[in-house]
């Protein structure tokens, strides 16, 4: 842990540390070293028994740990987070394959899409989701999960 005598040194040290670690997406720290009061995200991911769950800003568990992967963060009410679970399959042979199936949650932890899609692309304005299902069809959905474009088109 980095400690400093005044705020100016802390800011300088933070920028040096961030610059040196630009290639890192996230840093995992012990819960006892974490301060919720300074957290800017509306949903805060945590890990228990190798699964990822989410807390709200009050430290209340909103989603119990069930995910194997997350993509994105939730800083405002329009943000969506992709969540993934491991899925094992085979083609009738002895060899099993593993991949992620993805879903989407909103800032309240509401499940918009269950994790059952091979791919999910979220538009920049987060109003449209393009998904690829297990049948390898592409679907276009709104942010509530309603079908906008039929897969036959």
The biggest beta sheet, please?
Answer: 4 strands, antiparallel
Strand order of the largest sheet: 4-5-6-7
Helical region count? Answer: 1
Termini gap: 55 Å
Outline type: globular
Q: Which class do the helix and strand fractions yield?
A: mainly beta
**Secondary-structure element series:** HEEEEEEEEEEE
Overall pLDDT confidence: 82
Assess the beta-strand content as a share of residues: 35-45%
Helicity, in percent?
Answer: under 10%
Radius of gyration: 19 Å
- How many strand elements? 11
Low-confidence stretches: 1-18
Overall description:
The protein has 153 residues and is mainly beta. The chain contains 1 helix and 11 strands; from the N terminus they run αβββββββββββ. The longest helix has 14 residues, at 7-20. Residues 1-18 have low confidence and may be disordered.
Write the layout of secondary structure elements.
Elements: H1 7-20, E1 44-48, E2 51-55, E3 61-67, E4 69-71, E5 81-89, E6 97-105, E7 111-117, E8 119-122, E9 128-132, E10 138-142, E11 147-149
Antiparallel strand pairs: 1-2, 2-3, 4-5, 5-6, 6-7, 8-9, 9-10, 10-11
Q: How would you summarize what this structure contains?
A:
Helices cover 9% and strands 41% of the residues.
Q: What are the defining features of this structure?
A:
four-stranded antiparallel β-sheet; 153 residues; mainly beta; single chain; 11 strands
């Amino acid at each position: 842990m980095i400690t400093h005598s005044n705020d100016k040194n802390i800011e300088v040290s933070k920028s040096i540390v961030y610059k040196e670690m630009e290639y890192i997406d996230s840093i995992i720290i012990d819960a006892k070293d974490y301060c919720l009061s300074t957290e800017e995200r509306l949903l805060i991911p945590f890990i228990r028994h190798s699964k990822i769950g989410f807390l709200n800003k009050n430290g209340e568990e909103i989603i119990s740990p069930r995910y194997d992967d997350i993509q994105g963060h939730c800083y405002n009410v329009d943000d969506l987070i992709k969540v993934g679970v491991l899925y094992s399959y085979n083609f009738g042979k002895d060899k099993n394959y593993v991949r992620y199936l993805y879903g989407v949650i909103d800032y309240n932890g509401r499940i918009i899409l269950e994790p059952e899609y091979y791919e999910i692309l979220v538009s920049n304005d987060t109003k449209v989701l393009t998904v690829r299902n297990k049948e390898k069809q592409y679907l276009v959905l709104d942010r509530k999960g309603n079908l906008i474009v039929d897969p036959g088109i």
